[in-house]
Amino acid sequence: MTARSLRHRLFATGAVLAAGSLTLTACGSDGSSTGSAPNPSVSVNSAAPDNSLASLLPADVKSSGKLVVGSDASYAPNEFKDDKGNIVGMDVDLAEAIAAKLGLKAEVQNSKFTAIIPGIASNKFNVGMSSFTDSKQREQEVDMVTYFSAGTSVAVKAGNPDKINPDDLCGKKVAVQTGTVQADEIKDTRNPACKKAGKPTIPNDGHKYDLQTDVNTALFSGRDQVMMADSPVVDYAIKQSNGQLEKIGETYDTAPYGIVVAKGSPLGKAIQGALEALMADGTYKQILQKWGVEAGAIDTSVINGATS
C-alpha cells in the first residue's frame, strides 16, 4: 500500500450501516477544536549541535554535513510550497531543527509521496518526512521514529449546505488524495458498507487527486461535496479558508506519524535522540504552535511504535 497515513481501520470491511449511518469512534478533537492559528513568520529556537548525538550518525551522513529529506510538498501545513516556491511546513522546520541538533544542514527535496521510501532504499534520501503514519506493515521495510499524532477528519463547505452526515457518505461526492488511507477507507470500508445497506456508493470510490491542494480546490469549487484528509491538513485548510469550510464530526482513527529511515540504520537512534532533545528544550512545541498543530504533540519519541 502507498497510503500517506496507514493506520488501523475503525470498521471491518462490509460493516453494516446502522440506522442509516456508519458510526465513527472518536479518537481526537471535535469539530470546534482545530488548534491555534498558524503563524509561519514566527521564529523558533536555534538548535545547538549535540556532539553526543552527532556521534551516533552513520559515517557517510556525518561526513556529508547534510541530512537529505524526501517530502511530498503538497500537504499543508506539514509540507508544502509557499508563494515563493520554497518548501515549508511543520515537517520542514522539524527536519531543520533535528539536523541542526546533529550538527548537519537539512536539505529537503520535493518528491512524489510514493517515491520516498524507495528513495531511502536507493540512498537518494537519508530520511522521509512526509506525514507517514507508523505501521507494522511499514516497519517490515523501514524504521519509523515517531514524532506526531494525527487522525482522519472530514470537511464540507461552511454551513454544511448539503446536510452531509460524516458517518454516512453514501452517494456523496468525496474528494481524497490518491494513495492515502482515506482513499483506501472509501474503497475497502465505506463503499462495501453502502452496498450492504442498499445505498448508493461514493462515486468512483472517491474523486482522487494527486495533490492535496487539488482536493481542497475540489471542495472550494463545489466539484465535490466533502473532503477527507489527515486531521492537521483539514484543520489547516479550514483556518485558511476565510470561513468557507468547516469540519463535521470528530477526528477518528488517531495514530503516530514517523520519520522514515533505512531498516536497522543507526540514524534512527540519532534522530530519536535529537527529537527528544527538541522536546525537552521547547523547540518542538514552538514549531507545532507556529503551524497551529500543537494538538498533535506527543511526549516521547520511539522507534517502531506501531500497534497495527
What brief labels describe this structure?
alpha/beta; D-Maltodextrin-Binding Protein, domain 2; 5-stranded mixed sheet; 3-stranded parallel sheet; signal; ABC transporter substrate-binding protein; Solute-binding_3/MltF_N
- How many β-strands, per DSSP? 11
Radius of gyration: 19 Å
The overall pLDDT average reads 88
Q: Roughly how much helix do the residues carry, as a percent range?
A: 25-40%
Number of structural domains: 2
Distinct helical segment count = 10
Q: What percent strand?
A: 15-25%
Strand order of the largest sheet: 9-8-10-7-11
Order of helices and strands: HHEEEEHEHEHEEHEHEHEHH
**Which secondary-structure class do the elements indicate?**
alpha/beta
CATH architectural arrangement of the largest domain: 3-Layer(aba) Sandwich
Would you tell me which CATH topology of the largest domain applies? D-Maltodextrin-Binding Protein, domain 2
Q: Give the CATH level 1 class of the largest domain.
A: Alpha Beta
Assign the CATH superfamily of the largest domain: Periplasmic binding protein-like II
Mass-distribution shape = globular
